[in-house]
Amino acid sequence: MELVRYTTGRGDEASAGLRGPDGSLRRLAGSMCELLRLPRNDLRQLLESADGDAEQASVRLLPPVDGLTEIWAAGVTYQRSREGRTAESAVRDVYDRVYDAQRPELFFKSPAWRVRGPGESIGIRADSAIDVPEPELALILNSAAELVGLTICNDVSSRSIEGENPLYLPQAKFYSGSCSLGPVIRPAWEVADPNNLRISVAVSRGNAVAWAAETSTVSLHRSLSELADFLFSGLDFPDGAVLSTGTGLVPDLDFTLQPGDIVEIEVEDVGVLRNTVR
């Protein structure tokens, strides 16, 4: 089953619903954040007992977040990310330090209203020379910090701005079109081992693949629970939070996204997220 946020072809307001294996869709609530306020066991019971008529109208999937839900992200959680950040940075040792430090790097990525969904455009900054997708497994955490779902995050980033000075991280990470999520939320209890999921990315340019790579969450340097615990240690999230867990896929410095590129990210047992670069 899949949790989705959608709108119908009838012009209705957005809703949160459950999509079954056969594609049937049942409305659960008026917003996704209502579901993220529920305890994990209550949410699971709601999903497993959902009944009623399936949605018959055509639907358009929206970003699977709304309300006051915040999107955060972790950095330098894979060895490849450590190497890539070190190569691009004028202050190289800072990334070595954070990789092995007790406290992980966590940063604010986006409020719900700025997030792009499946099929929508992602952006690159006009004042940046090197821009990349960052394919990541993202945790869906309810208001009680319980892991209730998994989705895909494209943590679009400016490598040139971050590399110039680590204090420029917010500008490198947070701008219009810099975060996409989706296409769905997979309930966490349906994924046997989130610590061993294949993640792949392909960037299509014209009729060719400009860059492609693959990794696995088995290479994560930190546990998912550790990252979630640190996020909630100093913050409360009444509408839940999304925590993207970092990327293990970093292209060489001679690659940058271009307008018109199509970015496709697949996470095993979760889905495929596609966006076009503008």
Give the helix proportion (percent range).
Answer: 10-25%
Spatial extent as radius of gyration: 18 Å
Q: How many individual β-strands?
A: 17
Roughly what fraction of the amino acids lie in strands?
35-45%
* Count of helical regions: 7
Structural class: alpha+beta
Please explain how this structure is put together.
- This protein is of the alpha+beta class.
- 19% of the residues lie in helices and 36% in strands.
- The chain is built from seven helices and 17 strands.
- The chain has helices at residues 32-36, 40-48, 79-88, 93-100, 159-164, 169-173, 224-232; strands spanning 2-8, 15-19, 25-29, 59-62, 70-75, 105-111, 121-122, 131-132, 135-141, 147-155, 157-158, 179-187, 198-205, 208-216, 241-244, 262-267, 271-277.
- A six-stranded mixed β-sheet has the order 6-5-15-9-10-12. A five-stranded mixed β-sheet has the order 7-17-16-13-14, with no helix packed on it.
- Helix 3 (79-88) runs antiparallel to helix 4 (93-100).
- The longest helix has 10 residues, at 79-88.
- The radius of gyration is 18 Å and the shape is globular.
- The two termini are 32 Å apart.
Task: Summarize the topology.
Blueprint: E1 2-8, E2 15-19, E3 25-29, H1 32-36, H2 40-48, E4 59-62, E5 70-75, H3 79-88, H4 93-100, E6 105-111, E7 121-122, E8 131-132, E9 135-141, E10 147-155, E11 157-158, H5 159-164, H6 169-173, E12 179-187, E13 198-205, E14 208-216, H7 224-232, E15 241-244, E16 262-267, E17 271-277
Parallel strand pairs: 5-15, 7-17
Antiparallel strand pairs: 1-2, 1-4, 2-3, 5-6, 8-11, 9-10, 9-15, 10-12, 13-14, 13-16, 16-17
Helix pairs in contact: 3-4
